[in-house]
Amino acid sequence: MGDKNNNINFIQPAxxxxxxxxxxxxxxxxxxxxxxxxxxxxxxxxxxxxxxxxQELAGLHSSEIRAARDTPGDxxxxxxxxxxxxxxxxxxxLQANLCRVEEALRVIEEYGKxxxxxxxxxxxxxxxxxxxxxxxxxAYRRHQLLKRSHLxxxxxxxxxxxxxxxxxxxxxxxxxxxxxxTSDDSIRLSxxxxxxxxxxxxxALFIINDRVDLAVAVDADxxxxxxxxxxxxxxxxILGTQRIIGKSTTNPDEMQRAIQExxxxxxxxxxxxxxxxxxxxAAGVEYVQYAAKNSPIPWFAIGGIDMNNLNDVLxxxxxxxxxxxxxxxxxxxxxxxxxxxxxxxxVQTLRSIEPQVxxxxx
Length: 362
Description:
This protein is an alpha/beta fold and 362 residues long. It folds into two domains: 2-143; 149-360, Aldolase class I (TIM Barrel). It has 14 helices and eight strands. It has an eight-stranded parallel β-barrel, surrounded by six helices. The chain starts with a helix and ends with a helix. Keywords: Magnesium, Metal-binding, Thiamine biosynthesis, Transferase.
């Protein structure tokens, strides 16, 4: 009997300390995520979900659990890992803290069974809510970045592929599509991995052309489909709601079908004849004008667009453009990227103040 009581007396403080540490860890991780939802994404809904879970955890953090805290006697305070000392970007920061919250909740769920079965059950349900938060957070960030992206670079084969892409990213590029129709899959897989890492390091979206399987394999942000590729609905079943799906369109009928199918954005073109779409007649600026008036989702004018004809495309109503050769074959990709950004920003600014200008002359 005495041994049993001694065992209980030994176990109870340890369980309380475990619960205390992990309740703190989960709340801290949620607060870090909440701050990004609030200030980085401007999403009151996501921020409020984080706050609600923090408050629920605070309610579980009883005084008897807190009283067991022994920070000076905790050997874990001296433990660290090099990966915890730096973050390569916001993606890694968010992922690290989501994992921290999920792991902490799992610990509370298991050790909570020794303290309160109700606590264990509540925290189990919260863990599923965090999984949902993770999915929603990633999807929300991707779609917000898509909306803010006005320049879209589509790659073409190049001996200096990675140097060109990094130079464009340094120039402010936030949306990249890896397009390679000829290389072996092993090469494409290797290149896609490297490009995704580059894009995420600079906070840019990474899209794979055509290949849904490669997009899944490298955890790309999405896929771009042509008219001859699998339907958007089928791609959505494979990719889920988190990832972005784009669709090429060449006329109003294809545009309407892509929108009805659930594409997140569309390509509008080719505006001009281009070797990347050999044998395909140019859609012309008339289709750009149609898209400007009728597309409810983000769209990118594409096809033969360069510095010489950019203004004509913008005058036709485009606010977003996709380019290939203009940057991939440029001697100074960073400067060209910055030039496109400056022109696109100028047009956005003029169009945003136009109603005020009109009103001032009424």
